[in-house]
Specification:
CATH topology of the largest domain: TIM Barrel
Structural class: alpha/beta
Bound molecules: N-(iminomethyl)-L-glutamic acid, zinc ion
Catalytic activity: 4-imidazolone-5-propanoate + H2O = N-formimidoyl-L-glutamate
Shape: globular
CATH superfamily of the largest domain: Metal-dependent hydrolases
CATH class of the largest domain: Alpha Beta
Cofactor: Zn(2+); Fe(3+)
Largest sheet: 8 strands, parallel
Protein name: Imidazolonepropionase
Keywords: Cytoplasm, Histidine metabolism, Hydrolase, Iron, Metal-binding, Zinc
Helix content: 25-40%
Pathway: Amino-acid degradation; L-histidine degradation into L-glutamate; N-formimidoyl-L-glutamate from L-histidine: step 3/3
CATH architecture of the largest domain: Alpha-Beta Barrel
Length: 416
């Protein structure tokens, strides 16, 4: 094997290596070799090639870094009072978005930038190596553009969520026109994705369709907040428009589940992989809003692709902890640890079309052609590793709430 002189790292002392690669599976007493920013070798420790530097992890589990495909990190303000009221029995309502919007508009650029940076650091410290984040707390042309610009300085995938809430005092139809026109034009250069909150109290299916169609025409990939607060048309719309993901999915009919399970079928090339609409479940949000848990077990059993994400935001899910989300998926949603880890790594990568299959299928919006795939530990993938202070991944659920992230590599650099 030809390794770059000075650039290769050999990592040993791995009791369990969860590759999330169908062929490699989970290995024991394993090693990984990184060259520069990518993984170049994975296998039994005894057969590992020599490298310039060696790290012995001393008997720990290694997983792909978490791919958190749904966050709202660009915000200021506090909604702990709203949370406390909810714990006392108040239902969640979309109107709280307006409270965060007022605080976010009032924040200086430098403050907002520092807040996003600190949330990204917090996520990294919890094993997250790839993040999506959204606008949606600006809701004017200038404030949405500012949010997208700040987000783009910190994460690789930025989503335009101008259609998060109709700002108080504005007519919904006029606002949708603004989102589809000047707001989209101002934000699109900074964003890869567009999203819409398709829900009673936010945007109707017809308004959502208009927004998503305009955004697709501007070259953005599509995502939908759907079926969070009640049954609705979000899932059907997402599948119909070929969205990469529909997120929340708390209230699904059998028809919604079937639509997700067969989404992407019939794509050119005859493979669904990289064309599906992923069902992204948000376990921390479900707990924090006392919502019925999204039916992740049923979705997987039906053949749908599932992602797990944090949905970090001040209203419904104020955590960046993917460890917590994965533990909850195992403890409460009935997923095995392998299923939960896959959903929080490869599932997230597929939901952002940054996995190997989507890159090969050409379905990633605004792809540059030089992006390495993420979500698995296998040669050719970006060297994004999450080392647990535990011998096996099951400890994430077995020891819930414990600080189990021991080390993190992103693109070959050890960050922790
Ligand atoms: N549901 C819509 N948007 C966010 C919550 C926004 C808020 O309440 O601030 C979510 O994904 O849960
Ligand atoms: Zn969200």
């Amino acid at each position: 094997m030809n390794l770059t002189p000075g650039g290769a790292q050999l990592i040993t002392g791995i009791t369990e290596l969860v590759t999330v690669d169908e062929e490699l599976g989970t290995l024991h007493d394993a090693a990984v070799v990184i060259d520069g920013d990518r993984i170049v070798w994975v296998g039994a420790a005894g057969g590992a090639p020599a490298a310039d530097t060696a790290v012995d992890l001393g008997g720990r589990a290694v997983l792909p870094g978490w791919v958190d495909s749904h966050t709202h990190l660009v915000f200021d303000g506090d909604r702990s009072g709203e949370f406390a009221a909810r714990m006392a029995g108040e239902p969640y309502a979309a109107g709280g978005i307006g409270v965060t919007t007022a605080a976010t508009r009032a924040a200086a650029d430098t403050r907002l930038d520092a807040l996003v940076a600190s949330r990204v650091r917090e996520a990294t410290a919890g094993g997250t190596t790839y993040l999506e984040t959204k606008t949606g707390y600006g809701l004017t042309v200038a404030d949405e553009q500012r949010s997208a610009r700040i987000a783009a300085a910190h994460v690789e995938d930025v989503t335009f969520l101008g259609a998060h809430l109709v700002p108080a005092g504005l007519d919904a139809e006029d606002y949708v026109e603004e989102v589809c026109g000047p707001m989209l034009a101002a934000v699109a250069p900074h964003a890869r994705w567009a999203d819409v909150f398709c829900e009673e109290g936010a945007f109707t299916a017809e308004q959502s369709r208009r927004v998503l169609t305009a955004c697709a025409q501007a070259g953005l990939g599509l995502r939908v907040h759907g079926n969070q607060l009640g049954p609705g048309e979000g899932v059907a719309l997402a599948v119909e428009l070929g969205a990469a993901s529909v997120d929340h999915c708390n209230h699904l009919t059998d028809h919604d589940i079937d639509a997700l399970a067969s989404s992407g079928a019939g794509s050119a090339g005859g493979t669904r992989a990289g064309h599906e609409t992923v069902a992204t479940v948000l376990p921390a949000c479900d707990l924090s809003t006392r919502a019925p848990l999204a039916p992740a077990r049923q979705l997987l059993d039906a053949g749908a692709r599932v992602a797990i994400a944090s949905n970090c935001n001040p209203g419904t899910s104020y955590t960046t902890s993917m460890n917590f989300c994965v533990a909850t998926a195992v403890l409460q949603m009935g997923l095995s640890i392998e299923e939960a880890v896959t959903a929080a790594t490869l599932g997230g990568a597929r939901a952002l079309r940054r996995d190997q299959e989507s890159l090969a299928a050409g379905t990633r919006p605004k792809a540059t052609g030089d992006e390495l795939p993420v979500g698995r530990i296998t040669p050719g993938h970006r060297a994004d590793l999450h080392v647990l202070d535990a011998p096996a991944a099951i400890y994430l659920a077995y020891r819930p709430g414990m600080p189990l992230t021991h080390a993190v590599w992103r693109a070959g650099h050890r960050l922790l």
